[in-house]
Protein 1
Amino acid sequence: MKTLEQIESRTPISSLPFTITNSGSYYFVKNMTSTGHGVVVQTDHVDIDMCGFKIQGDYDFADKGLYLNGLTNDSIQSVRIHNGRVTGFGYACYAKNVESCVLQ
């Protein structure tokens, strides 16, 4: 019998804020709200499937819904975020020091 990890190897995102520091695939499990940044990506090779869900901010215009935050001397590469909506943030998506990013 296969383990759950063998069947679903992606990491669930079930609350915000959520910071990604490990490469891999992630997926949303529900609509979510945040009083700060939503999802912060700080590493390469990340795929986030929002699964048709949305993230909602609290209308603090300093916050970023999707924050791709590369280091000054080391950019983030190969990030894909797809299949969802972002609303109520100052920036829906803010990408700093990023290469090869796809938003769908």
Protein 2
Amino acid sequence: MKDLRLIDKVATGGLKPDVTIYMKLPSSSSLGRIKRKKDRLELEKASFHKRVNEGYKHICARNKKRVKVVDAAGSQKQVHDRILRIAEKCLKK
């Protein structure tokens, strides 16, 4: 993770977004939603997806004020409404 933070810092010039929305969905559900031809990442083993998920959990935990976790289960409309509520709160600040 330390290497990723360094790469991120160099690539972004140290800039951070005001808010990041992380759409949380188990790997098994997210892979099932893919309707297009699978690319290299989708073809990876479950252990890879578990490590990626752990990385995102770590990022969320380290950035609790900035990262908003959205339950991505449900319909597109339900997820959209959840994200919209977060965006509206951020814009009111």
Protein 3
Amino acid sequence: MRVAVGSLNPVRIAAAAAGFAAVWPAESLECDGCRVASGVGDQPMSNIESIRGARTRA
């Protein structure tokens, strides 16, 4: 299974890989990050900004 993560942050990529591996343990997994414009600042200042950025990356 190939997974594209909407971030280059190694912690986020590792978290996505761990989540997919937990749900589909028998699958071979390739998890890559990619740069995606989130539409919010690098450090979101509210929960709403965090959610907006996460939805944009997804």
Protein 4
Amino acid sequence: MKHPTEIENYDGDLRNLAREVTNLRYDSLTKFLNYISMYLKLDANKDLKRRNMQLYSKLHDVFTYLDKSINDMEKVWNICKLHMKETNENKS
């Protein structure tokens, strides 16, 4: 499989994409990161089946660290969610 260096049908560069993704509300950002982790796991498993252990091992490390970050991001969302609720109640 060839991995592209740009995203088809996206006009911005990767830096702009990163900015747009990080501007998402944290629960949506968490979902996005979960999708990335899921696809990295799929890629890693393909490499494992092809017995490309070096690539499998590194991809495994990446999605393991990413899963830890996702867990932390869920905590961030839980903190922000409480603040958003308070802010919305104060507006009423």
